[in-house]
Amino acid sequence: MTLQSVRKGVRPAPDRVLVVGTDGVGKSTFAAAAPNPIFIAPEDGVRHLDVASFPELKTWPEVFEALRTLATAEHDFKTAVIDTVDWLEPLCHRYVCEQNGWKDIEVPGYGKGYVPATEEWRKLLAALDFLRAKRGMEVILLAHAAIKNFSNPAGDDFSRYELKLQKSASALLKEWCDANLFAVHEEFVNEAKGITKAKGVSTGFRVLHTERTAAWDAKNRHNLPHELPLSYEDYAAARAAGRPADPAELLEEAIGLVELLDQAAQESIRPQLTAHATDAAWLYQAVMRLRSKVSEQE
Fold first, then answer.
1. Which pLDDT score, from 0 to 100, does residue 200 have?
2. How many degrees, rounded to 5, is the angle at CA 166 between CA 124 and CA 105?
């Protein structure tokens, strides 16, 4: 380590995305729209999608065989998708138990069996990082969400959505990724006047949340809007805007959308666009809001 080896500046690299979502929300469909994906799947969840995939995985070493193939063989795949990491977990635990002669992962005592299991997850992430560095592949990890009780050190405990994975492995994956996104069907509680009992109502939309709330974990390193449609195209556009994108193109689209609104809205919004004409991140969020306004107006 010398001062001559110190690096400066942004070093672009393929994305590492963790998408956690409720059942049937469209996680696999999201990943299928990524650039030329190949699925590594321990579950038969992609049979309805026209995508490339390895045969259904049965053992933990088979996961690494698939990754080794992607690292060494000639191919034009651009995205490695694991669908899902929580279905990989039993393969990991079974492998650790076989290596140590345990009947199950709890045999060594409370929590001790998960220590070598977490090390196996570290090896998996290292293999995925190798694909990113040497083959330029984006990595998307898909996972199911489970409702768990959260021990709140600052007040009363409450229930929230969590990654359906043992907590040590869960923490490792969430720390490793560049974007931890939470996918859910958009819903709200109808408490309108005259309704004696509040009712849950679904809008039919599927959304991605990019920031943490009390109800779920999420994060991102791309300056994303706090909410996006559950669409890889929208995610990629927002990611590009946060890196940032060309503000001139975003401004042009925003101006076009403003012209579809009523006169009062135009007079209110145009000065804001002028004031933020070179701010790509702000303009992207403005475009998202304007699209919604135009849709509502129509």
1. 47
2. 85
| All residues at 6 or more sequence positions from 99 whose CB lies less than 8 Å from its CB, including other chains | 116
Domain enclosing residue 164, as ranges: 12-231
Closest CA to 137 of 256, 286, 14: 14
Residue 107 has pLDDT above 80, yes or no: yes
SS3 154: coil
Read off the tokens for 96. 């650790």
Residues 211 and 254 in one domain: no
Q: Among 231, 257, 277, which residue terminates a domain?
A: 231
Virtual torsion, Cα 167, 97, 81, 79, nearest 10 deg:
110
Q: Which two tokens stand for residue 237?
A: 């556009």
Distance between CA atoms of residues 216 and 214, nearest Å: 6
- Sort strands 179-190 and 199-209 into parallel, antiparallel or unpaired: antiparallel
Task: Tell me how far apart the terminal alpha carbons of the chain are, to the nearest angstrom.
Answer: 61
Give residue-wise pLDDT tens across range 14-63: 899 999 999 889 999 999 999 999 999 987 767 788 899 999 999 999 99
The whole-number average pLDDT for the span 100-116 is: 93
Strand ranges in the chain using DSSP code E only, listed in sequence order:
16-21, 37-40, 52-53, 79-83, 138-150, 158-163, 179-190, 199-209, 219-220, 227-229
CATH number at residue 171: 3.40.50
d(CA 164, CA 142): 11
Kindly state the average pLDDT of the residues 269-298.
79
Structure tokens at 34: 């990524």
Whether the per-residue pLDDT at 201 is higher than 50: the answer is: no
What is the spatial distance between Cα 242 and Cα 282, in angstroms, rounded to a whole number? 9
